[in-house]
Design goal:
Oligomer: single chain
Number of helices: 8
Helix content: under 10%
Distance between the termini: 86 Å
Largest sheet: 29 strands, antiparallel
Strand content: over 45%
Radius of gyration: 32 Å
Number of strands: 51
Length: 981
Amino acid sequence: MKKVIIGTVLLLTTALSAFSQTKNITVAGRVIEDDTKEPAVQATVQLLSLPDSAFAAGIATTAQGYFTLPKVKAGKYVLKVSYIGFQPTVLPLQLSAQNLNKNVGTLALKTDAVMLAEAVITAEAPQVTVSEDTVAFNSSAYRTPEGAMLEELVKKLPGAEVDDDGNVKINGKEIKKIMVDGKEFFGGDVKTGLKNLPVEMIDKLKTYDKQSDLARITGIDDGEEETVLDLTVKKGMNQGVFGNFDLAGGTEHRYLGRGMVNYFRDKTQVSFIGRANNVNDMGFSGGGGGPRWRRSNGLTASKEVGLNFASESEKLELGGSARYNYRGTDAISTGYSENFLAGTSSSFSNSNSKNRSRNMNFNADFRLEWKPDTMTNIIFRPNISWGKSESGSWSQSGTFNEDPFTLVPNPNDYLDLAALAQMDFNEDDDPLKSIRVNTSNNLSSSEGNSLSANATLQVNRRLNARGRNITLRGRLGYGDNESEQYSSNDTRYFLTTGDVPREDDRIRRYITSPGNNYNYNAQLTYSEPIARATFLQFSYQFKYNYRESDKSTYNLALADSEWKLGDPLPANYADYKDNAQSKYAEYKTFEHEAMLGLRFIRPKYRLNAGVSFQPQNTELTYRKGETDTITTRSVFNFAPNVDFRFNFSKLSNLRLNYRGRSGQPGMEDLLPVTDNSNPLNIRVGNPGLKPSFSHNLTVMYNTYNPEKQRGIFTNAGFQSTRNSISNSRVYNENTGGWTITPKNINGNWSTNGMLGYNTALKNKKFTIGTFSRVSYNNQVGYLTSGKGSEAVERKNTTTNLTLNENLNGAFRNDWLEVGINGTISYNIEKDKLTPANNQKPYNFSYGANTTILMPWSMSLATNLSNQSRRGYSDASMNRNELIWNAQISQSFLKGAATVSFEMYDILKQQSNITRSLSASGRSVYQYNGINSYCMVHFIYRLNIFGSKAAREKMQGGGGFGGPGRHGGPGGRPGGFGGRRF
């Protein structure tokens, strides 16, 4: 009996010992800032085992400051919490198997005054951190020019792309909205945020997928998820008034003025912005950044003024904005294109153009979210917009049956009809006469107005605590627009049909196009818990859309044979309405949508799966020329979707998303009607068009190691469309014109992948990063040549494989930053029917940038990058562009003011060239622009904070300070960093 007892004791002891070695103890808590009591976002939490202080577990805090460490075994530990700008906190812990869930409570971090003053830690700020599906960037890890706006900071983020139109992609995903502390900034408008938010106010930038109001409240996936960029304002700046003003003038008649004043008080935000410039809102880029051939497509002057506000209380959230924009553009371009024909031949075109446009817009939006009790949520979103536009254009173009560059070096100089008429007296004066097909000279002017208003009301009611809820949502929309256009077009044809020369075209037209539309819909959703954390979801929606347009065309050549653009309308113009070119269309669309889905929520994963069914009926009343018809179409669309998210830990997650969607061709494309308003581009409808169906699959994976400040983010995607609509283009060899008919085609698909890696080296002052991308596009289209019964149509496939790699490295301390980077982008372009057009072009760039913070509040910065193109069949594209920018700045008034001198494209080597390739052809265009100039800036920063401590923190710590001054947590030194063109 004694042996049995001893054996039992030993067995229990062994079991307890083994149990104690099992990793089954969870440590959790919350971290806040001691002075503001706000959560410490992305603070580093580490658990170190004793006695050797070996790393046992680590994580970053959430947006609310909470953390839950990965499970560990029992033993003695030290919990260490680190946060930039605050003193590290160390807490001894004894973890026992008797308490498997250890909560350390709320840890308050004290401000590190020395760190704020000297900002030595700024050089060690991690560039990128990851928490669940959120990727966060520390503003303090990137230096930007004095007075720089958000766009300059975004360009420097790993994996960020900003195109010429101001669209932003981060890690391959397009940013749809910009938020400030979780609140929409000017309705979330991306361009307004990029151009007006100063870098100095930003602590962190977080990118994540934000659900729609409906999905956020009900959990029902409505397919309206948006990727947003959410900015966190620096601590201490949410208790007062602060602003940024920048006035600048330069060579080449360049000017810039912008200002922003903010009032932040707890949960209230008010911002006023104003901006005017004629520098195309461009700015420096660089240090070798990607082969980003940043274009300046014309000269642009813009003006903007706006007001934004947001307020939040326990039960009510309010927000809204109003803004006025003016944009004037003067663009001059020269270009040439090659249109592939079946076989080995091609059609060639050259063109010159001048365009002048003036656009004015006013937009206002409002948002209300009210929670009258814990079970009810009401959201109301109205908006209104008004616009006015004016434009004028001049163009010359010519079509050739052989490449004109083989005969003359400058074929664009031989496109003026008046000059060609003089050359008719001496055939030797026209070196291109033997290959000419047509030449066209065009003038036009237009103006228009538009007005639209929309409103959405959503009411949600939770029916129990388990997730049962019901939602009602309604939408109303109205739009009204009108435009008028004057055009003068002359086209000369050089080839004959048999022995008969084709008559030249002389077109003088006046066109009015009033239109209006309205729509409404009503939606009911219901979510029912059917098991633990499992929900059955149902939604029904009815939509009605009405749209009317009435295009009236008048033949001014018949009303007055001497009329020219700029003359008043002939008194009798209304008697010469051209019914063959006028068109009336009225659409009435009724749609029902029913959605059924399942939602699973588990500690490690979430799954949403569903399918929607959309019966639709459309009635079209159409009148054009001799066609007067009423036609109806009834279709049935469906759209499946799956969204799966798996969390390996708080810092590592995987997401898979699939969405299918069917689409219908336009009703007018289904009518057997010919539109020959442009004799060189005739369009014919196709009643045989089928619906298309697209597949979109995306896989994303992110992980982050806070101990090594190492982040990995990757995604891959696949897109395919069945029965996509392509234009079949029949080329008329006698006129050089095209007859275009929409047709279904299969074979369009693409795939892409991205891998980003960023890490700090041992002493954290050195960082290295890599960003790799690969994409493959398989694009199909129709190539047709010949005429009538001799027309030959063949399916052409163009493939494009792109490999892109970017490497960068940087050293940074409290007075010096040196960065180097290089990028190569390699393309393999293949055309099935015209293999002679195959090429393997590649772009590469390399460069360096440096910023020196000198004594006396002065900074010196410069960047130099060489951007190169090789492998293009057009030799003019194979060139180098050495781009050099520089800036010197001096701060005074304790950092409140700065004067800077900036030089752009000092060597005058940047070009403005665009290039495109498709299954039907390729083109190259060059635009006017001013890239090389100098500017002197005066920048003033306004800081009026609510308390003495806050003022000292922002002024003494430097928040908006000049070179050598550093902000509070997340504050950045002044100075200048490269920007990429």
